[in-house]
Structures
1.
Amino acid sequence: MLHKLLVSHVETPPGLDYIGGFCGGLMNDYRRRCAYCRSDWLTDVLKGKTVSGALFLFFATFTSTLALGKHINDVTHGVIGINEYLIMNSISGMLHSVLGCQPLLVLRPTGPITLLIEKLHEVSEWLVLPFWPLFAWTGIFVGLYMFLIAATELSRFIKYVTPFTENIFATFIGTVYINDGIQGMIRVWNSGTADVAARKLLVFNMTLGCTALAYYLSKIPSTAWGTYTIRKLLSDYALTISVFVLAIVGAVLDAHFFPVEFIDTSSTGLTTTDGRQWMTDMGSITGTGILAAAVAAIPIVMFFYLDQNISSLMCQKPEQMLGKGAYFHSSFACMALFNLLGPIWGLPFVTGSLPHSPQFVGAMTETDEDYRPTGVVENRVAPFIGYLLMGVALFLPDLLNKLPETAVSGALIYVGLKAALGTQLWERFLLLFTDPYKPRLGKGYSHLPLKTVHGFTLLQILMVVGCWLCNIYIGLGFPVFVASLIPIRFKVLPLIFSNEDIDALLAEEGEPPKKMPDSDVDQLANIEDAEGEDTEKAMGAEKDETSSRQCL
């Protein structure tokens, strides 16, 4: 009855039509995807995007997972760390590339998952329960709850997640990655004692240099540098190039000028962080502990429901131009399996990743010479190779320890910036500081009063701040706040803004904007006329000055 509680008529995205029956939607996903088995592994593989997409996936997810593994190792005092994170990311990713119906969905242990594990560790200490059995039993209940959701097609209710929630959630996740990158940078520059000022300057320059280079190369198609082929190549390999450049710079600096911190590979390989056995003793916990695990699994599943399905929604939108359909239930069932088995072996949870999922689809998107999307290279080989490289990296410590830690921080900041700056919320946030009319021209909300646009933007920013406060202070209750954004959209917003204004403010890119009132059109025309007159005067003055110089 959720549709009656929220709103009666919401358009159902592709892939979320109700099938009925136990596992009906799940089986329908596999029936639809089976038609593309040949192209997934053969015909759609022999395209340039396969290699560039695989390398983007590897560097974007590897650096993020590495940073989160280091963080959880610090906060749990070596209970779980980099090895568990990389192993789970690699194995679950390869399995999903083979078994999942949407292999372009990126899954990994994310920042919020790291927070949930951290809070679960605190709960185990507070209740005086052994952490690993509590974690394993929590994973069992998480997996069972998630499978029931997939089997009964409850993911179909994710259609009520509108751009209002998507923008807030994507901005929050983006700022989480930016914060992680900055924290990693600060951790590196505080690790030494000699030449503190010089060290901080070096770390700062290397971190932001990596970020700036990757961001510039990703935007190079909009410039006039080189040819279309060169710009396209540089854009496809933006993050890969920036990481390699920083590795070379770090090696030169470390050899001849100043010591540089590289990734610590002393604990890599197929060993646990704390030296324990891989298999958890499930019987070494009381019945009270098992009950606590069943309760703790509820908010965790709430978060997975939102994070996994929002990631699926954002990377399978119609404007993404996917040609093989959209799939939700099968990916959720795969996550249920991974999150049930992983914790038994002491491996972290995984879920669909923002912002990596839509960014990976973008990395696999082909464009014409005007950089308009023409389609997506959809295959299973690109994600499989990306996750395979992550597993191989565990056994190549001699290569890993040549990667500066600042490259990890820079890559995190880059991924976060791409997520946060790619939202409509950021676009409207800029209106608070820029020309209030020209940036709105052609947008769906261009006809609205500025105070309405600014009020809506500030409300969304307040929701992002709320996500951060819950993330810091509530812990396992954080998913409840994220879920509350859905009723806020349908029950609270209409009390503040009209439905027409809300629709205009949340109009997707590419939707036809509503007709602008004549008063706004006249005002914009006056602004453009005034700017045209100023330009003509400036050109006339420049011409007179040139003539005077020629006479002299």
2.
Amino acid sequence: TCCTPGRRTASAVVSSDSDFTGLTQRIREDGLTVYGFGEEKTPAPFRAACNKFVFVEILKRSPTPEPDKPTVTGPALRPLLRKAVEAAAKDDGWAPLSGIGNFLQKNDPTFDSRNYGFKKLSELIRRQDVYLEIGDERKGEVGVVYVRLKQKAMK
């Protein structure tokens, strides 16, 4: 059957229909990762039932923002990124970018930097310089990007 555990580690469901919500939940209950793909009109319950949900429209768009484009923030982006940085932050207030990405994926399966016009999360984060500070390769960790809330933005 399609839900027999032990045969695979992940499943993909391509639909914009909420009828697949129950199936998706059942697959996740069996311990499999579910990747959902659908249009932006896909109902929220189906998107939330997936471990990761990708809007198919972003697969068609150019992910490169215009160079003179101002800092990108959607109505829910700033609080979401703030919460992610706070959740992933170490005692010194710095959060590894990987921890931020993990938080975003777990808490919002539809989060994808491409929805905001950026190919990578690091590119999106770098454009949030009004309230986020980037610290590359801190503590001798080559290739590790750290982020923290700017002091002014925290007040």
3.
Amino acid sequence: MKKFKDIIRITLLYARRVPRIIGTHAFLVFLLLIILSLLISGTIFFFTAFSLRNVEPDIQASQTAFKKEIFLGILDIWEKRSVMLQEADTKIYEDIFDVR
């Protein structure tokens, strides 16, 4: 039991020193974290790349049907919008900055 308490006390003692050590060696810690993140992301990338290499894609042929009624409805909406845009261009607005 005493040994367990000593282990906890020593762990807490070092845990208090960790922020100061990180702060005094910030650049080296930053480089270490970048290298660690590159190693982890590279490992994940290669495991996914090699695991997907052996998988065959399941291609299912799907039938697409052209629905003429829907196409004509969309075409009608587009024509109405183009007419509305052309009418908006012909409106002449008054120049509010013109000094007369």
